[in-house]
Amino acid sequence: DMGSLMHEVIEHISKYLIAKNIAWHEINLNEKYTALCDKEIDNVIEDIFKEKMSKYLVTARYVVLKNKLKSSMKKTIHLIADSFNHSEFRPLGYEIAFEDGALFAPIKIELDNGKAIFLRGKIDRVDSLKLNGNTYLRIVDYKSSDRDLKLSDVKDGINLQLMTYMWAMIENKEKIAKEDKVIPAAVSYFTISGKLLNIPTFEKDEKKIATLLKKALKLKGIYIKEYQHSF
């Protein structure tokens, strides 16, 4: 349930930033935007808990979970904002569905017997970067537990979720960039977790702790070093 709640908060904040015309990378650079964002996180979590957990309002567990979620989501949102400060990628869209009736069509796989399979899904976030006549795409999937993506698992067919998401975007490339070449740049997981950071030795320096936290929660996945093909 906490994982679903975290997804819901990120989706809400993403739409809130669009409505307020605030870019992700500006959150940590402007105290006004930082305060607005933190306040909105508190507000949306209060609303979610009242709607979905109202029968637990008076319990101590409810209060602990709510406060833990507020703290975790503020750290998560600021980490996402910080990641955009170190990159020129910008969000192309959130909760992007590829299915019948949606902007992006499902993936169609023709079978030997003349029938077809249609793959449908929803992508947490797609980022893009326009550079030198090319549009680079980055798929980001939010996970409530630590997850990594290994090329060996993809080759063995064990973990194909993110590659399928990228495939869906490439299949719909004309809706992303009509003139640019569309290039897959990255498929990655982002961990949204309120778990404590396990540091082997005692550390008192808050800056070092913050650095270790960023390292632990950084995007994990597969990235291109350079490209040779375009789509």
What's this entry about, in short?
The protein contains six helices and seven strands; from the N terminus they run αααβββββααβαβ. The chain has 231 residues and is an alpha+beta fold.
Distance from N terminus to C terminus (CA atoms, Å) equals 39 Å
The largest β sheet comes out as: 5 strands, mixed
Q: Order of SSEs, N→C?
A: HHHEEEEEHHEHE
Rg, rounded, reads: 20 Å
- Across the major sheet, the strand order is 1-4-5-6-7
The whole-number mean of residue pLDDT values reads 85
Task: Classify the helix fraction into a percent range.
Answer: 40-55%
- Alpha plus pi helix count: 6
Which class do the helix and strand fractions yield?
A: alpha+beta
Which outline best applies? Answer: globular
Count of strand segments: 7
Low-pLDDT parts are none
Question: Which percent band covers the strand fraction?
Answer: 15-25%
